[in-house]
Each structure stands twice: as structure tokens, then as C-alpha cells.
Specification:
Number of strands: 3
Distance between the termini: 46 Å
Order of helices and strands: HEEEHHHH
Number of helices: 5
Helix content: 25-40%
Radius of gyration: 17 Å
């Protein structure tokens, strides 16, 4: 077993709070191949994955082999591009495959958005950029639709219903975590275009 190189300043999901999911149909091997393809499409200088797997269960780039089954299912993907360091991390799910798939989907969706003729104040990957020096690390979270567990094009009423359901366990008054509460609120707002009701 090896230790995950988890980005500093990024909170870990407590093991008891990790979710099981069946929404991803791809295997771990397919997902790792898709990640490698995305990194190639982005033309990054280099990349490396970090998982709880070690030894013969990982490739030279850190991507896990299909036989990987670590106790810690977290997945971190780091890359450098034009001298800037980036990292995305996910341990929301109880299975390594599902965390890796979430990372792949986020990178793919972010890369695809960057090809749209939309003006933004900064790179789409700014959310995942690793700051220099002693600044806190900023790590990307799952896309809003994944946080709420709805389709990317879900209607407003579906989003609102999913938000209410998530609030039953995420709200601090119900024993939930403040960070998760904020994450769910931000996901709702993003999917409703800034509306909060």
C-alpha cells in the first residue's frame, strides 16, 4: 500500500461519509485510459496520478492498474502545463474507480468548455491551479450535477428537489458538515444560474 499525495488544504471525505454509486459504467482500466487520452489532448507537460495503490498495482505514471483495490479509494491527478501546476482530487465515493471516473469527467467537461467561444476572466482550469509558496491549495470539486446527483441538463424543479433531499443530511442543523452544506448550495446555485430559491 502507498500513501496518497493528497493536496494540502483540501479536506478529505470521512470514510463513513463516502457514497456507493452505480452511475458510472466504465471500468477502472477504461477510466485510466480515458484520463491518459485527456492529458494527451490537453498537451500537458507531464501528469501523475496518486492513489492508495502501490507496487505492481500502478503504472509508471501513477495510474492504477485494473487489479488495484486499495483501502483508501481516493484519487488525485496532478499535471503541469506551461510551468503551472494543477491538481484535482476526489474521495467522495467508496470505490477507487468511481473517484477516478469523477476526475476524468471533470477534466473532460472542463476541457470541452474551454473550446467554447465564451469569454471568461481566467482559464477554466484556474479552479484546479496549485498556488505557489505558502498559499492554500485550491482543488476542484465535482461538477454541480454530480454533487446533486442529477443529469447535467436537469430541469430547475429536479435540481431544487435534489437540493432539498441533500439538505436533509448536509445541513449543519441536521448534523451535517458545513463544507458539504456549502458545496451543495454552490452546486444548486450553479445549476439554477445563480437563483437560490
Amino acid at each position: 500500500m502507498s500513501e496518497i499525495e493528497w493536496p494540502a488544504g483540501c479536506p478529505r471525505t470521512p470514510p463513513a461519509d463516502r457514497e456507493r454509486t452505480t452511475k458510472f459504467g466504465a471500468t477502472l482500466a477504461e477510466t485510466c485510459q480515458a484520463i491518459a487520452t485527456e492529458m494527451g489532448r490537453m498537451g500537458v507537460d507531464d501528469y501523475r496520478a496518486s492513489t492508495g495503490s502501490g507496487g505492481s498495482h500502478v503504472r509508471s505514471n501513477g495510474l492504477p492498474k485494473h487489479s488495484a483495490n486499495p483501502d483508501d479509494p481516493g484519487f488525485v491527478l496532478r499535471w503541469s502545463d506551461d510551468g503551472q501546476q494543477f491538481a484535482v482530487a476526489c474521495d467522495h465515493y467508496s470505490d477507487l474507480r468511481d473517484n477516478a471516473r469523477s476526475i476524468y469527467l471533470w477534466v473532460n467537461e472542463t476541457r470541452m468548455r474551454s473550446q467554447r467561444p465564451v469569454q471568461t476572466g481566467d482559464s477554466e482550469f484556474a479552479a484546479a491551479r496549485l498556488p505557489s509558496g505558502d498559499e492554500e491549495t485550491v482543488v476542484a470539486t465535482a461538477p454541480p450535477h454530480e454533487v446533486l446527483e442529477v443529469a447535467p441538463d436537469a430541469g430547475d424543479e429536479v435540481v431544487k428537489a435534489a437540493f432539498r433531499q441533500k439538505m436533509e443530511s448536509a445541513h449543519p442543523d441536521q448534523g451535517g458538515d458545513t463544507a458539504e452544506f456549502e458545496r451543495v448550495k454552490q452546486a444548486r446555485d450553479a445549476m439554477l444560474g445563480g437563483e437560490s430559491t
